Amino acid sequence: MPPRIHPLPRDQRHRLAPLLALYAAEMRGVLAGAAIATPEDQAALLAAHPAAEVLLAEDAAGAPIGFAILFDLPEIVFARRCGNLDDLFVHPGHRGRGVARALIDAALAEGRARGWSHLRWIVPEGDAAAIALYERIASRTDWRSYVIRLDPGASL
């Protein structure tokens, strides 16, 4: 059965804490040396952030099994808006079942409804599973990603 995907209101973002804990544990391996926040602090940030939008994937019983964090941004070149997929995570026990693809499809549907010119995202080079999916469904860009670290403990 396909997952149910829907926007997660700010006052329910605490429901992400178990998934955020799993996500943080995985990212510790990918982003070696990064000082990662607690799931409770992560969920509180998502609840308070005025621009963060969360899509939640639930199983048939209504349990959270994945999420995508989106931002609606100005796209100056096209004088339109675009979407930025900041984070996408699927519970390890639910991978390989199309949940990530369903989250991306929901983000694309939202973007079409809003008139976005495109949906974009970045992925750490060490996240081989995510890259394998993205290589199948999206086009790799010619853009480079740069960062200036203001907090050395928050490396990406």
List keywords for this structure.
GNAT_dom; Acyl_CoA_acyltransferase; five-stranded mixed β-sheet; transferase; 5 strands; acyltransferase; 156 residues; 4 helices; Bact_Acetyltransf
Major sheet: arrangement of strands: 1-2-3-4-5
Summing up helix and strand content along with how strands pair, one would put the structural category as: alpha+beta
Q: What is the β-strand count?
A: 5
**SSE order, one letter for each helix or strand:** EHHEEEHEH
Query: Which value, in Å, is the CA radius of gyration?
Result: 15 Å
Q: Can you tell me the overall shape? A: globular
Low-pLDDT segments, ≥5 res: none
- The portion of residues assigned to helices is 25-40%
End-to-end gap: 35 Å
Please tally the helical runs, counting DSSP H or I stretches of 4 or more residues: 4
β-strand amount:
25-35%
The largest sheet is: 5 strands, mixed
Average the pLDDT over all residues and give the rounded result.
89
Description:
The protein has a five-stranded mixed β-sheet with strand order 1-2-3-4-5. Helix 1 (17-30) crosses helix 2 (39-48). The chain has 156 residues and is α+β, with helices and mostly antiparallel strands. The mean pLDDT is 89. The termini are far apart. Helix 3 (99-114) links the parallel strand 4 and strand 5 (116-121). It is built from four helices and five strands; from the N terminus they run βααβββαβα. InterPro entries: Acyl_CoA_acyltransferase, Bact_Acetyltransf, GNAT_dom. Keywords: Acyltransferase, Transferase. Pfam families: Acetyltransf_1. Residues 3-151 form the N-acetyltransferase domain. This is GNAT family N-acetyltransferase.
